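seq as requested:
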Amino acid sequence: MSDWDVVLRGGRVIDPESGRDEVADVALDGDRVAAVGAGLRPGRAEHDVAGQVVTAGFIDLHSHVSTVAGLRLQALDGVTTALELEAGVSPVDAAYRAAAAEGRPVNYGFAASWAMARMEAVAGTALDGRLGTFLANIARGEWQREATPAEVTALLRRLSADLADGALGIGVLLGYAPACDPAEYLRVAGLAAEAGAPTFTHARDLIEMVPATRADGAEEIVRAAGETGAHMHYCHVNSTSQRHIDRVLGVVGRAQAAGARVTTEAYPYGSGMTGIGAAFLAPERLGERGLTPSSLTFAPTGERIASEVRLRELRQGDPGGLVIIELLNENDPADRELLMRSLTFPGAIVASDAMPLTWAGPEPDPLAWPLPPGAFTHPRAAGTFARALRLLTRDTEGRAGGGRLTLAGALAKCSLLPARVLQDRVPAMRRKGRLRPGGDADIVVFDPAVISERSSYADSTRPSAGIRHVLVNGMFVVRDGGIVPGALPGRPVRAEPR
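struct tokens:
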């Protein structure tokens, strides 16, 4: 009698770390992979996955989704671990306790939040471990000003406390407070280096966009890596660089060649999304990015913003309301090529920047599924990983093998490489992002010829195509393409402080 709980039988098993790419069986024992090989003995449950790819579940380093409904959409895109690292939260212990109490379909974790620590130290904002607190205060000028030495000391104290509580790193929304002294950023990077923690930065403005910026966004990140030795992760390099991506990637590449620890991520969409009260969305600043009010679509109402007057009204009335921002034209071949260069850059990671759901009416029961009508978000929340695999591995005619990367190479960007960003601070991440005996049973099974996003700007919550099964800690969250009701096996990913 077999002790194995589940055997996935006869799939194409791909492990991006070892290079394994062969037809084999995968046996699961509880929350771990027990064996991988041909002709394994039977398990208590058998699933024929012939013709499907079986691989490590996707790790999203950049997810702002914190509800069961939103995380189910991510699971239907192959995600088994969704982490809030760019914005972060503070205090992190409150965020971990809240997530554990509510339950999560996928694994979860948080970085400490520089922006929230700054709100507390500089503007006196009370913190509660919720991203909503940042969004509610996003437009307040008080927290964005240059900090005094005492205020910098206070915010560093908050970040230190969060790191001691198991924060995965430090998230730095530098682009949201452009008046910040570059010396403050270096001190944050120095704190991270001392703690052995990576930082996750939304870059300051590029000099091409804002010639008077206090520091070029790309140069500032690589300088911090070089001067402090910290691991600096460059968030969504596609959206903050726009049509200057080649120059930015050149800066990063030279720093990497010199030995600096700088990693990058990108999402496969030309539009971004954030709170409408962000500093760089002020009407007088839109031209820096080649934008006009009509480049913005306000999620709560679905309206394309018609004028500067209307933009000011929305920023005043609902500064945390989410807005889609057209940055690159996905229908323009030149812009698509820039987007692809950010995805195919050596070592670049696929990350979604998934955003919370906005509801047209009252929010439904958080466990309601299928997703009730009336939800709106950026399509990347539901489709990032399937879209990235389609773009990277299939040509424009949809033929498998016609893309820019091998399937194994594309999968590494979705699982192995993000695990490696965290594994020095979080040893448990050495069991994720790989498919091998002893590894965590976080697994995605998909059809490589079919996998594709189905979400769009008009239908942003439509699940991806081709995802057959998703298991988190050995439990099915997605089975036969549908959500398993009541499955909330997600566990905290938390650092082990030095």
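The longest helix spans residues 149-164.
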